[in-house]
Design goal:
Blueprint lengths: L1 E6 L2 E6 L2 E2 L2 E2 L3 E6 L2 E3 L7 H8 L6 E3 L5 H4 L2 H7 L5 E3 L4 H5 L8 H7 L8 E3 L6 E3 L4 E6 L8 E5 L4 E5 L16 H13 L4 E4 L8 H24 L4 H9 L4 H5 L6 H17 L4 H10 L23
């Protein structure tokens, strides 16, 4: 399924796999001034090409290495063999070897398996800036949804193309390996840019995004405080799921446990533990950071993050 919306000079191309005539989940690619931001999933690649047919395409950029954002690249490369494809240096290896993705069964069924694209240009090679005839898009690192996630910021228009860095509404599910600290840090980064228009992966474009960004941050922090209170009262994770969410939803079953409210509780507990650790004296914190420093000397990132997927985004 595919649905096209116009937002001034920006075209939102919303894509989903349908079931009984209804979309299961939406993901969105955006076309603006010849630049395509994200490429959709494998299952809608042909439909995406039909939408792009009357438009000119000068460049493609991928916000992160998930199948619903990179899956259309092979079809695009076949149709546009000379159009450059850009991605962050962390994303490039996954585009070249999609087998690196640890895709659960439900993701393979929902979106399809992506195929490799070899000739991808790292955004480092263009100084993390993409220019079109009318606009200049600057790369903003926004890890949390995935380790490699980036967003694009157009400073003159104050547009942000946020990929999955922003997911509207309260959270009810989370994967076990997510990092709430990184998610909150990225949301604060986006809010600090004071955007006037936010283009998220859901396709639900925000015309007054700053209050919604602050609301999202507040909802997540409110949840961490609720978990802290229940933790102090001695409740188990299962009891917290019942108290806060009235139990697990069917999504836990459909994703075979990959997404669950229990994982969200654990994410909050990990965040609370990190914040409590940072209340220690400075010398103690510095010693701990040195002890837990990453062993890979080539990884200079100071933003902890892990990968998580999401369904039914708002």
């Amino acid at each position: 399924m595919i649905h096209v919306e116009h937002h001034g000079p920006v075209i939102a191309i919303r894509m989903a796999r349908g079931f009984l005539g209804r979309p299961i989940d939406w993901t969105t690619a955006y076309w603006v001034d010849g630049l395509l931001i994200d490429a959709g999933p494998p299952c809608t690649a042909r439909q995406l090409l039909r939408v792009l047919n009357p438009l000119h395409l000068d460049g493609i950029v991928v916000t992160h290495a998930h199948e619903d954002h990179m899956g259309g690249l092979p079809a695009l490369r076949a149709r546009y063999p000379h159009v450059p494809i850009y991605a962050s240096r962390r994303t490039v290896p996954f585009l070249q070897e999609p087998s690196r993705l640890a895709m659960q069964l439900y993701r393979r069924l929902l979106w399809g398996r992506p195929k490799p694209v070899r000739d991808v240009i790292s955004l480092d090679e263009v100084d993390e800036v993409l220019r079109t005839p009318s606009y200049c898009f600057r790369v903003v690192e926004t890890p949390g949804h995935s380790r490699d996630h980036i967003s694009l910021y157009e400073p003159t228009q104050r547009w942000i193309f946020s990929g999955d860095a922003f997911v509207g509404g309260p959270e009810r599910h989370w994967p076990a390996d997510s990092d709430l600290f990184a998610v909150l840090s990225s949301l604060r980064t986006l809010a600090s840019l004071r955007p006037e228009r936010l283009f998220p992966a859901s396709g639900n474009v925000r015309r007054t995004p700053l209050p919604e960004l602050h609301e999202k941050i507040g909802l997540l922090l409110q949840l961490t405080r609720a978990v802290a209170r229940l933790d102090a009262a001695g409740l188990t994770v299962s009891e917290m799921v019942t108290a806060l969410f009235n139990g697990e939803s069917s999504l836990r079953w459909w994703t075979m446990g990959h997404l669950s409210a229990a994982h969200l509780i654990e994410a909050c507990r990990s965040y609370n533990a990190l914040m409590a650790q940072d209340d220690r004296p400075m010398a103690s914190r510095e010693a701990s950071r040195r002890y837990n420093a990453p062993s890979d000397p080539s990884d200079t990132s100071t933003n902890p993050s892990t990968d998580y997927g999401d369904l039914f985004r708002s």
